[in-house]
């Protein structure tokens, strides 16, 4: 069998004769295009350039021929920096996947030019074909590194090519056969239909069909063998609607007889072209240098980066693919954890508190309930951080009603008993007022002075509160952003508690961690542990995953919007019992957009319910366009039972506590995320009364039904958060895609919890030993971290 170099020379000589003859297309019988299609099968880019050669003018032929000859130049320019080998010679490392790293050359002695991978494809340092910069650039691949890190989006097992007789209708299959004939026809609408008649080695027949690709007729010659993939149709005979194909030139195929990767592509860019480009790059590179030391690879059971990059594109078997995925996912999570941890200064000192057992006993003795095991476990982690001289940076996460405020109050009590002040910052004035009342309830009996600072206070009141904070007259202060303004000076602040931090944003959290002493972040929005460890990678994690005894479960029901009137009748029944109800909508006002025409708005529902409900039903409206004072006034009146039914947007999602409310109605429930629905449901069931949540769905498709049934079936916020993560992805679960946390390419937060735990453990150890990654062993890792930050458009953290 001829080598690639021999085929190159065999093709190059007649092209040079064609140039010498003045581009007359008479060097070979049948024309130059037929010769290239027959001899030049390994050089698909040349075939593409010569396609239609006989129909061109002399000037156009000259331009095409010169391009083709340029493509046939052998690899020479990169041999001094890459340990290249002939493309037709096997790679000993790839042909023997069991060969260990210790048997391979020392990476430091065979590293390529470290900057070459980042060069644009236009440099042609590696021969991918003259058309590669244009073709690959159309899908965002502009450098050699882009190409090697453009991983397949899925894989197809094509190790066994079925005979035609084994195919069934509706199958997607890859087949191989010899072309016995071809025919192009036009449909009534002018669509060109090209059919190639194939025969397999057993003599079975199949028709391969291409739609509206007339140029392919000049590439498909009788006697040629092709490998084609597509959907099988069974009619008068077998037919394959081809989605991708390649000519079989007898050399090892990249698209059949193996596990084949399928890449993201655009029309006009074939899978075979991308695979060939990746393969040429892999053949040209002797070894991809690793940014992890070999000792760490062994400790975490990881293959080398070189092995992973080769196997992710062309795996020998399932095990090789899984090990490659594991290594590359580990890299993603490790670099993400390092990035998040480096975003704050881990060397910052907090306040070192002495935790006395008697103080905790005194605090617990005044509580009207007993702390749960989960609360005690969370408190133990918090107090351990407070005893340390390093700044506490911890996330306290728990479902609605799990008792986070009581745990935070205990930590504040310890800070005050150590002669320091504590502060709690909430995202809204409504929530700040509620925390003020709860903390006063917990701490006032213990002799602690609690105060409230809000931006909407009058100047005189704010000045007086600031004076008490500065003089030390107040032990615990609750407020909004007003607490971190320049005109607020604490006497001796030791502990800052930040509630519902995700409403402040990533960058704001980082600033608070830099400016404050010990910091405890609280969240009543359950998110999966895997997401918490990545999104909050700079914080230690405490989870209260247990509700206090006696909490009544909220009965949840999913109904069609045709049952809306029945729901309103049920609401009136609850109101007649002395209860109150919420009705939440996704929009404030009606939208003019056709896509939102069926979405219920707050203003619309408020007007409709005033007509539908009995005159005795007192109704009010609340939405985000109202001022802070208006919102506070409405919620205070609702708490005082001045009205019965509150029509609102999700402004009431977090923190508002109305013990008498027993019913939550959510219109267009399909427009909300599962975790958001769970938060809204948590606004009821906060008192002694049996409570209900009704999800009114405008869209009852199977997909919507399946998603909303999660809320109907589960009451555990953490279980719901895991389901939400599986269905929607990490960015959507958080409500908005926060800056500073890049999307993952391979990693799956719903499936890769173990890898996340391992990578986070390693990141903490690395930064504990070398906070700035300045050691020699970390040089490559640090460079990779910087490179990825730049490529993602993120700010550098080191």
Summarize the structure in words.
There is one protein chain. With 798 residues, the protein is an alpha/beta fold. 38% of the residues lie in helices and 16% in strands. It has a 7-stranded parallel sheet, sandwiched between helices. A 6-stranded parallel sheet has the order 15-20-19-16-18-17, sandwiched between helices. It has a 5-stranded mixed beta barrel with strand order 2-3-4-6-5. Strand 17, helix 22 and strand 18 form a beta-alpha-beta unit. Helix 1 packs antiparallel against helix 4 and helix 3 runs antiparallel to helix 4. The longest helix has 25 residues. About 5% of the residues have low confidence.
| Unreliable stretches covering 5 or more consecutive residues | 75-110, 735-740
What is the β-strand count? Answer: 20
Distance between the termini: 54 Å
What is the tally of helical segments? Answer: 28
Structural class: alpha/beta
Radius of gyration: 34 Å
Fraction of residues in β-strands: 15-25%
Strand and helix layout:
Elements: H1 4-20, H2 32-39, H3 44-50, H4 58-71, H5 92-95, H6 107-110, H7 132-137, H8 144-148, E1 154-157, E2 172-186, E3 192-199, E4 205-211, E5 225-234, E6 238-247, E7 259-262, H9 271-284, H10 294-299, H11 305-313, H12 318-342, H13 357-365, H14 373-387, E8 393-398, H15 404-417, E9 421-425, H16 429-443, E10 450-453, H17 459-471, E11 476-479, E12 493-499, H18 506-515, E13 518-523, H19 529-535, E14 540-544, E15 555-560, H20 564-576, E16 580-584, H21 602-612, E17 619-622, H22 628-639, E18 645-648, E19 661-667, H23 674-681, E20 692-697, H24 702-713, H25 717-728, H26 730-733, H27 753-769, H28 779-791
Parallel strand pairs: 4-6, 8-13, 8-14, 9-11, 9-12, 10-11, 12-13, 15-20, 16-18, 16-19, 17-18, 19-20
Antiparallel strand pairs: 1-7, 2-3, 2-5, 3-4, 5-6
Helix pairs in contact: 1-2, 1-4, 3-4, 11-12, 12-27, 13-15, 14-15, 15-16, 19-27, 23-25
């Amino acid at each position: 069998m001829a080598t690639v170099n021999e085929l190159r020379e065999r093709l190059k000589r007649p092209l040079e004769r064609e140039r010498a003859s003045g581009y007359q297309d008479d060097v070979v019988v049948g024309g130059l295009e037929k010769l290239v299609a027959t001899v030049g099968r390994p050089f698909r880019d040349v075939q593409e350039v010569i396609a239609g050669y006989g129909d061109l003018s002399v000037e156009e032929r000259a331009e095409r021929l010169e391009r083709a000859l340029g493509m046939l130049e052998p690899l020479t320019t990169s041999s001094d920096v890459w340990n290249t080998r002939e493309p037709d010679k096997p790679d000993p490392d790839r042909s023997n996947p069991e060969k260990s790293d210790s048997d391979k050359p020392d990476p430091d002695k065979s590293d390529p030019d470290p900057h070459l991978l980042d060069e644009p494809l236009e440099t042609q340092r590696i021969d991918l074909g003259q058309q590669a910069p244009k073709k690959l650039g159309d899908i965002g691949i502009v450098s050699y590194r882009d190409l090697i890190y453009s991983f397949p989006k899925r894989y197809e097992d094509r190790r066994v090519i079925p005979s035609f007789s084994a195919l069934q209708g509706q199958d997607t299959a890859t087949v191989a056969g010899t072309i016995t004939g071809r025919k192009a026809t036009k449909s009534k609408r002018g669509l060109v239909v090209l059919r190639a008649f194939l025969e397999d080695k057993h003599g079975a027949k199949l028709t391969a069909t291409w739609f509206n690709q007339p140029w392919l007729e000049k590439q498909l010659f009788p006697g040629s063998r092709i490998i084609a993939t597509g959907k099988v149709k069974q009619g008068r005979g077998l037919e394959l609607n081809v989605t991708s194909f390649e000519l079989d030139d007898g050399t090892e195929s990249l698209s059949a007889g193996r596990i084949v990767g399928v890449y993201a592509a655009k029309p006009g860019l074939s899978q075979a072209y991308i695979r060939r480009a990746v393969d040429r790059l892999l053949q040209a590179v002797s070894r991809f240098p690793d940014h992890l030391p070999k000792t760490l690879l062994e400790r975490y059971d990881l293959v080398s980066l070189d092995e992973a990059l080769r196997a992710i594109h062309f795996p020998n078997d399932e095990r090789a693919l899984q090990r490659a995925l594991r290594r590359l996912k580990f890299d993603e999570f490790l670099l993400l954890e390092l990035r998040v941890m480096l975003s704050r200064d881990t060397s910052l000192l907090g306040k070192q508190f002495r935790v006395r057992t008697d103080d905790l006993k005194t605090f617990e003795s005044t509580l009207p309930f007993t702390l749960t095991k989960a609360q005690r476990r969370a408190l133990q982690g918090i107090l351990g951080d407070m005893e340390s001289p390093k700044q506490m940076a911890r996330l306290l996460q728990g479902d609605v009603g799990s008792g986070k405020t009581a745990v935070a109050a205990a930590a504040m009590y310890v800070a005050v008993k150590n002669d320091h002040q504590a502060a709690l910052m909430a995202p809204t004035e409504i929530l700040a007022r509620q925390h003020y009342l709860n903390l006063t309830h917990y701490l006032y009996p213990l002799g602690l002075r609690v105060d409230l600072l809000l931006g909407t206070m009058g100047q005189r009141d704010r000045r007086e509160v600031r004076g008490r904070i500065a003089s030390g007259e107040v032990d615990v202060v609750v407020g909004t952003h007003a607490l971190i303004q320049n005109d607020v000076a604490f006497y001796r602040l030791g502990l800052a508690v930040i509630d519902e931090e995700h409403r402040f944003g990533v960058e704001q959290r980082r600033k608070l961690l830099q400016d404050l002493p010990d910091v405890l972040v609280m969240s009543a929005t359950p998110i999966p542990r895997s997401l918490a460890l990545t999104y909050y990678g700079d914080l230690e994690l405490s989870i209260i995953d247990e509700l206090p005894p006696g909490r009544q479960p909220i009965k949840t029901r999913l109904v069609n919007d045709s049952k809306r009137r029945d729901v309103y009748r049920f609401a009136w029944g609850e109101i007649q019992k002395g209860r109150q109800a919420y009705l939440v909508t996704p929009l404030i006002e009606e939208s003019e957009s056709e896509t939102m025409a069926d979405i219920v708005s707050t203003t619309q529902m408020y007007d409709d319910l005033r007509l539908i409900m009995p005159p005795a039903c007192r109704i009010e409206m609340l939405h985000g366009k109202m001022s802070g004072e208006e919102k506070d006034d409405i919620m205070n009146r609702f708490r005082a039972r001045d009205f019965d039914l509150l029509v609102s947007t999700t402004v009431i999602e977090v923190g508002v506590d109305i013990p008498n409310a027993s019913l939550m109605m959510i219109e267009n429930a399909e427009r909300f995320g599962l975790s958001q629905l769970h938060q809204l449901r948590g606004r009821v069931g906060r008192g002694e009364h049996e409570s209900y949540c009704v999800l009114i769905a405008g869209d009852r498709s199977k997909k919507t039904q399946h998603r909303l049934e999660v809320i109907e079936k589960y009451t555990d916020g953490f279980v719901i958060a895991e389901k939400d993560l599986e269905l929607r992805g990490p960015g959507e679960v958080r409500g908005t895609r926060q800056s500073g946390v890049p999307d993952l390419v391979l990693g799956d937060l719903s499936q890769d919890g173990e890898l996340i735990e391992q990578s986070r453990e390693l990141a903490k150890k690395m930064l504990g030993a070398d906070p700035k990654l300045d050691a020699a062993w970390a040089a490559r890792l640090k460079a990779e971290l910087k490179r990825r930050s730049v490529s993602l458009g993120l700010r550098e953290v080191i």
